Amino acid sequence: MSDAPSAASGKMNLLMVLHAHQPVGNFPWVLAKAVAECYQPVVQALAAYPEIRCGLHFSGPLLQYMMEHNRDLIQTVAGLVARGQVEMLSGGFYEPLLASIPARDALDQMAMMSQATRQLFGQEPKGFWLAERIWEPSLPAKLAPAGLGYTLVDDTHFYYAGLAAKDMFGYHLTEREGHTLALFPTHKELRYTIPFQEPARTVDFLGRAHAAHGATCATYGDDMEKFGLWPETWEWVFGKGWLVKFFEALLAASDWLATTTPSDFLASHPATGRVYPPTASYEEMLTWALPAEASAELEEIIHELEEEGRFEKMRRFLRGGQWDNFLIKYRESNLMHKRMLWVSGKVAAAGEKDRARDHLMQAQCNCAYWHGLFGGLYLGHLRQAVHEHLIAAEDLLDKQTHGDKPWASCAVADLDRDGNDEVILAGPALDALVHPAYGGSVSVLNLRAQRFNLADTLTRRFEAYHQKLVQAAEAEAEAKAQAQEEDAPSAEGVASIHDRVVFKEEGLENYLIYDWYDRACFQDHLLAPKANLDNFQRPNYGEWGDLVTGRHALLDSGAQGEKAWCRLERASKLFAPGGPYPLSVAKGFDLGPGPRLAASYRLTTSDPATPAFRLAVELNFTLLSASDPGKRLEFGGHPHPLDTAWELTGVEEMTLANASGGFSLRLSAGQAATVWHFPVETVSNSESGLERTYQGSSLTFVWALPGGAGEWDFELAMELR
């Protein structure tokens, strides 16, 4: 039992909740750095100041790492809990967005975290951390069986419900279907001053709030990574002693100011009111979720209103999109999300509660599903972590069904929920997701034993911050020149990551290349004779066909024994000068027997005047790294790297080698082809600045057709070795 004081009566209470998270699939060295430079020193500072009370939340992936590598840190936190200084919050164990996953999975995630909280810290949690503060009105009913009484949202949520600045103190009650939940609104001003400004700024805000609103609480809930992991923050928070000075400043104002925990404040204070927030998240998230052009426009409007001094008056009526828009903005995100729902359904149907369910829950970690200020979706290793666990879960379930016997299956369903059926071809070694309505392309190509989606290449897209790249580069150069004449960093604070524009290499604007189609495997181009590798990779080569994005009819599909297949057809045209010319395309996929997938083509032209053209079948694949010499393409006994563009002729067979991954694929063309390769690279935002990232490779097999009326057959197969 704790003898810690409850929330102070008559005083302003600062309610702090620090959230620590590292995503599933992050590199071990990143976690080690995070613990050493952030989580450990923050917890040690709390241990040295027992009067400072707060809430803490460590996500499941981080707890698992700490259990293996930093048990002393867990024990220290448990000691803070035992003496009543710290309250631990529950949440989704693998940090899912609770609104975006099925209720059964959300409750399993919450139960897993609550159990870990009891076992590791000896405390029954009473509230939960809401990942990315993604709120939907249905959550109180959806999560009611978890038995938790409160969570934190942003003040943004309250503003969108029509409330005013005076209502951002204390807590409000909301409900759905009679299930009540307390909501603490976090203050944007606190999030932007802690820890980026001198402690006096925060204390001054709290003092003004106390004078205006009396004995209530102001809530600060934010990422612990801001205390040492964000750029320049370690030197500011620990090197220059901001955290100690902050604690000292809070204690110096103890005659009117106290720190407390959410549960203690709830126990000693009535609700400020009731509220029904709409679907929302924090302000920046809702801006990022918009289409890129709309996002840039909203940022411009907000900037104009701030300059005019009208933003605070208008913010209740000005908002962006919602998190779900990322599933439209990024096809890759939607494919992961809908495959997650597909696998969740299979897990639920099988009644699987052990390894398959745990893999499913790891695949629900939110970080790879969206992109904003940080890499997120743009980080290939995080996307692959999602795919890895989805593959593992599905593979375990299929092994329960089929055992060690050879098998193949074919399912037709609208897996990605776009209104068009997909074909799922699967076997014990490979599975592929075919999109008849999107060029008969393959968006998912899973190597089951390797737990790897070979087709996970990110499309190059315009992002709102791209239009600022050149201007920001000029401003950065000017700022650097000025900084050489002054002492840096400023003693008055450190820039929030929201305010920093940094470039990790020169000339990034040269890599702002945008694709007109979503990248996948087996995408079929019809090219003019003069198209070449240079203009193909830009891509401004001039497409003569409509096969890349055109709808194909699904004529046949099925499975028998160790083979699965589907047959597609499209009545198309060749859009060459003097045309268009009639063109029909029959396209088929055969999976198995064994670890083999083959695509077959029959192109038929009927007009004798049809000019010569070329068929180019593009495979977009990833091995996650272009600089690893063990990851390469091999032809004629010679290696060819993934980090440069190159062309080969007379290719009938080549190998995609992944020495570090322990596998290779033999790529076989039915007849000799010219092969083009180039790395697919994006420019994206990250914690440390704008950076160029290898997302995968475009490997295209090109065959010349003589024109006239005729019929031509081609095949391109891959076999895992």
Characteristic terms for this protein:
Beta-galactosidase, Chain A, domain 5, 12-stranded antiparallel sheet, elongated, 27 strands, 5-stranded parallel sheet, 20 helices, 7-stranded beta/alpha barrel, 721 residues, alpha+beta
What would your notes on this structure say?
It is a single chain. With 721 residues, this protein is an alpha+beta fold. Among the domains are: 12-138 and 186-261, Alpha-Beta Barrel (7-stranded beta/alpha barrel); 464-511, no CATH class; 521-720, Distorted Sandwich (Beta-galactosidase, Chain A, domain 5), CATH 2.70.98.10. The protein contains 20 helices and 27 strands. Strands 16, 17, 18, 19, 20, 21, 22, 23, 24, 25, 26 and 27 form a twelve-stranded antiparallel sheet that branches. Strands 1, 2, 3, 8 and 9 form a five-stranded parallel sheet that branches. The protein is elongated, with a radius of gyration of 28 Å.
Mean pLDDT over the full residue set: 93
Name the beta content range.
25-35%
**Radius of gyration, Cα only, in angstroms?**
28 Å
Count of helix runs:
20
CATH architecture identity of the domain at 12-138 and 186-261:
Alpha-Beta Barrel
Outline, from the CA principal axes?
elongated
Give the quaternary arrangement of the chains. Answer: single chain
What class, by secondary structure content? Answer: alpha+beta
* Helix content, binned percent: 25-40%
User: In total, how many beta strands?
Assistant: 27
Low confidence ranges? 1-5, 487-491
Q: Major sheet: size, sense and barrel closure?
A: 12 strands, antiparallel
Per the CATH scheme, the topology name of the domain at 12-138 and 186-261 is 7-stranded beta/alpha barrel
Distance between the termini: 61 Å
Per CATH, the class of the domain at 12-138 and 186-261 reads Alpha Beta
